[in-house]
Model the fold of this input.
Amino acid sequence: MKRVLVRRSTAVAVGLVACFGLVSIAVAASTAKNPTFQLKALSGSITSDGSSTVGPYTTAAAELFARAGASKVRITVGISGTGGGFERFCRGEIDLSNASRPMKISEAELCRDNGVAWKAFTVANDALSVVVNRQNTWAACLSVDELKRIWEPGSKVDSWSDVRAGFPDVSLKLFGPGTDSGTFDYFTEVINGKSRASRSDYQASEDDNVLVQGVAGERGGLGYFGFSYYEENQDRLRAVQIRNPKSGRCVSPGIKTVQDTSYKPLGRPLFVYAKGSSFARREVQAFVDFILDRETRIARRARFVPLTKKQLRTQRTRLHHAIANGR
Done:
């Protein structure tokens, strides 16, 4: 019997805004053998919450984990946005935090203040996708500068004709993640130059399906979200190519372009954070081990980009070191 529960959670606003960056984790080389787990002997529960982008990945992993034998482990996957997930995580309420960006310094400080230790694992890659309505036949490729003019704070770009000479005078309708979303943080950082710096007059939602419906329903619609939601809805939407700032080449989102790093600057890693006290439990260790052992299958099932061989080696070393050292 499948014991995977998926629930939608109300987003929790994060009051503190700090610089965007990865809190570094020192990983020592480990000679520990690969951990082995008897999945059928495992029981208990694992709670997770966070990114709407990573949520489908964790859900797919949980479903495959149950099918592989760990059917006695009950896994719940909430979706309250990366920031909302980190807030719950740093209050000690959940075992895993799904994140589409690294933990911020302010979030790490909140965890520290609450005595919550953690381990971070990169589990997949994503091609943050800029999408338009399928009736849009003019915007095949956009540059970072054009996206910035559209999305920067105070932007007065209201028509496609304002974006580029030659584009039609069609009203521009914008759709994007809410401010509690890691996708919002990442996009604003790499496009507008500062995390959370964005025009506010757009339809925002933590539910990417709402954004899909919005763009699909407006001829002049434009939005952005994770690659998996585009792939699921490519009969209703069209992905815009992004002009690589260095090569000048227009690049489509996809597995090859993310792994070879040509899909710049919107290719990104995705994370699962494990609470230290939770990671000490055998079922949590086994679930993280299972994710890394089957990450290609999980990524493809959930329509994400698998880790590169180098990324996977790094994450396996991180996991083995954490298990070998008992934390």
Observations:
- The domain at 4-126+269-324 is CATH 3.40.190.10 (D-Maltodextrin-Binding Protein; domain 2).
- Confidence is low (pLDDT under 50) at residues 1-33.
- The two ends are 31 Å apart (CA to CA).
